[in-house]
Write the structure tokens for this entry.
Amino acid sequence: MNITDREITKKELDFIYDDFRRIEQADGVPQRKTDRYQYVLEEGGEVIGYVSGITEHKWFYLTDLWIESSHRRRGLGSRLLVMIEQKAADIGMEHIYLWTAGRINPVFYEKHGYERFAVLEDKYEVEGYHQTGYRKDLITESE
């Protein structure tokens, strides 16, 4: 038996990931189907905003939300966020989560009803600049 410091091959990694799926299947977890949903905001033929995320079982992972700097603070990010949340709910996602960083972004998501579930304090080289995980329920108990 040897432990080595080397790159794993694609074939070896595929075998490992297939085994992860077999373990989940044995535990009764349905096979994951991942789909990406996105909206692009354009003005004058230029992309000025983007929101994107992927499905993960009952959860929607918001991977990207971006507004070009000269268009920020006009409600465009809020519009894109609401649109992707509605899309996620429409396709049956029960929850949404994301990771963000900085000092302004957490305030934005909290304003939209997101709750913090994790903080990686001082993850970056700038003191007080954390990476924060946020989540929100898309389907309430009454639904």
